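anyone seen this seq b4? input:
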Amino acid sequence: MASDPQPQLDFAHVLYVDLVGYSKLLMEQQFSLIRELTEIVQGTTTYQKARPGEDIIVLPTGDGMALAFFGSPTAPAECAVEITMVAQQRPHVSLRMGIHSGPVYHVSDINANLNISGGGINIAQRVMDCGDDGHILVSRTVADVLEKKKTKSSKEREKREIGRASCRKRV
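predicted toks r here
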């Protein structure tokens, strides 16, 4: 048996999505909900911008999916909000989501499909497990990044507004 190459270590921003109450449903209902969740996720702008295998790896989890984004640390939160906006219009779609950023290995699964493993995805699942229907929970790591991003965006917006105000005064 040939030796496998060393797995590639990377940093992923993971959104873990779970259909609440999935295991209590009939198999036909489960299939229908998974298909609907897939359509919702594929319809998001965040998902559509990502290049499969490069910017994103999507893994089925049986009762949901994990989306590992490589690049923007805000992509999972943006995607979660987009998913929630659509899901709120479909009361039969009950979701909980968890987000974490952390190290992952790029690995092949038993069928030689692209997969990831490691703390990044494991902790995202644990964060999600703490939530209930309608919750989007984030780890402290992600909360810190989002807060800094919000603060930076607020400062940039403030500078633009000050710049516009000063332009108005000159005119």
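Residues 55 and 70 are 5 Å apart (CA to CA). The mean pLDDT is 87. kinda curious what u guys think
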